[in-house]
Design goal:
This protein has 444 residues and is of the alpha+beta class. The chain contains twelve helices and 15 strands. The protein has two domains: 15-213, no CATH class; 219-442, Aminoglycoside 3'-phosphotransferase, Chain: A, domain 2 (Alpha-Beta Complex), CATH 3.90.1200. Helices cover 37% and strands 21% of the residues. The strands form three sheets. Strands 1, 2, 3, 4, 5 and 10 form a six-stranded antiparallel sheet that branches. Strands 6-11-12-9-8-7 form a six-stranded antiparallel sheet. Strands 13-14-15 form a three-stranded antiparallel sheet. It is globular. The protein starts with 13 loop residues before the first helix and ends with a helix. The relative contact order is 0.10.
């Protein structure tokens, strides 16, 4: 973990850097408080050392507070003495104390410094032969910044976590455990980096980023589904295979991490498990209405659904899950699926994203993703219906049992409420998609 103050110390103050970023930050896709009015404050920072000395590297940590958001952002910066010292095409942010400040996430100077500072598994990330001089930043990400580094065996991909939470990020911990189990459908972790920052509770530590095997030649599952939906081409076979992979992932997670069996935990599972689920959905609904008040129109319908689940005593055990599974977290390469991005829901706290949960929550998330692909491609309803049915068939085949349809519906409702808030904050033009799901699930 790089302590505060490592590396060069003649950079501008963090407050001066933050002042230079105040107009630039809210325009980033990963900035969590859309719509203006957020308060920004420096929450710490540290320097890394570029082995070549091409630029100063400063990682600024920024606290963002608004009516609905309280988050700490990671903002890597590279500081050049001369404008010609920066790589072609890099994003210049500002000039501070005669230094040219650039967005560092895709800058070779930052990438070399990150590899030199990171911890790894069998080998140091700096010794993997990766080419940090010719990176490719993946466009379109909403929550993080990912950078592809060419190299042996297809190279690697570095994910820079933008919104930080105390503790080890699940996207570091879970893939390491799955790889150790021998599960073949996860990109292998190659390195990771931690840091410290200041909160109301004092100084805390957490994950800053993870370096993973790059799956060469892979296609994004969501992009593929949208393209096929737009052409009217069936996604059924691929959905069935994906269902099998997701069921295999759940089996590997259950082997790698604790499973909460009936009768274990702070409260007995029988009887109280359904109560916990209903209470969580009730809390989700209150949270969603607080951000999107028009959702209150569904209050009676949600209450009716909650009444139907409270008395169940047959819920399955809880285990570690993906937590934010959708087609965009699945890659297709070499005629097989790979699952990535185990961070969980970006708007949830770390404790909520790592506690044992129902495996069917991931199933519900993938079903929602088929709806998104169909809606964004103007596909007929039959396209999504077939994809959903085939995914469930593949999952049941691998798991050895049919998923509980009522439970899947309830978890899909929970996910649609989360989506309604996420879209309102980040992609208002997509709000009609979760709205349609809520109508389908509640207007009965």
């Amino acid at each position: 973990m790089p302590p505060h103050g490592t590396g060069p110390t003649d950079h501008p103050t963090d407050d001066a850097l933050l002042d230079a970023l105040r107009d630039w930050l809210p325009e980033r896709r990963w900035f969590p408080a859309k719509g203006g009015g957020a308060q920004l404050a420096a929450a710490g920072g540290f320097s890394l050392t570029d082995p070549r000395g091409a630029a100063q590297v400063r990682v600024l940590l920024v606290r963002v507070r608004s009516a609905t958001v309280d988050a700490v952002l990671q903002v890597p910066l590279t500081l050049y003495a001369e404008p010609t010292g920066a790589p072609d095409g890099s994003d210049r942010v500002a000039t501070v104390d005669e230094l040219h400040v650039r967005d560092g996430a895709g800058d070779p100077a930052f990438l070399r410094a990150w590899l030199a500072a990171a911890d790894g598994g069998d080998a140091s990330p700096a010794d993997l032969g990766l080419d940090a001089d010719h990176p490719r930043v993946i466009s379109g990400e909403q929550s993080n910044t990912s950078v592809i580094l060419p190299g042996p065996d297809g190279g690697a991909i570095l994910k820079v976590f933008r919104t930080l939470t105390p503790g080890e990020n699940p996207d570091v911990d879970v893939p390491r455990r799955l790889a150790a189990q021998g599960w073949p459908n996860v990109p292998r972790p190659l390195g990771w980096l931690d840091g410290t920052w200041t909160t109301d509770d004092g100084e805390v530590a957490g994950s800053l980023g993870v370096l993973s095997q790059f799956v060469e030649g892979a296609t994004d599952g969501f992009e593929s589904a949208c393209a096929m939906a737009g052409r009217g081409e069936s996604f059924g076979r691929l959905a069935e295979e994906l269902g099998r992979v997701v069921a295999g992932m759940h089996a590997a997670l259950a082997a790698a991490l604790p499973v909460e069996q009936a009768g274990e935990g702070a409260a007995p599972r029988r009887g109280s498990g359904a109560g916990e689920l209903a209470a969580a959905l009730e809390e989700r609904f209150r949270w969603a209405v607080g951000s999107v008040p028009e959702l209150a129109t569904w209050s009676d319908a949600v209450a009716e659904r909650l009444a139907g689940i409270r008395d169940r005593d047959d819920l399955p055990p809880r285990q570690r899950v993906h937590g934010d599974l959708h087609l965009g977290q699945a890659l297709r390469a070499r005629d097989q699926w790979f699952v990535m991005d185990f961070e969980g829901e970006p708007l949830s706290g770390l404790e909520a994203r790592t506690r044992p949960d129902l495996a069917l929550r991931d199933v519900a998330g993938m079903l929602r993703s088929f709806d998104y692909a169909a809606a964004l491609s103007d596909a007929p309803p039959q396209w999504a219906q077939e994809a959903r049915a085939e995914f469930l068939r593949g999952y049941a085949t691998e798991a050895g049992a049919e998923p509980d349809a009522d439970l899947v519906d309830l978890l899909e409702l929970d996910k649609a409420l989360y989506e309604a808030v996420y879209e309102a904050r980040n992609r208002p033009q997509w709000q009609h998609i979760p709205a349609a799901a809520l109508a389908r699930l509640l207007d009965r």
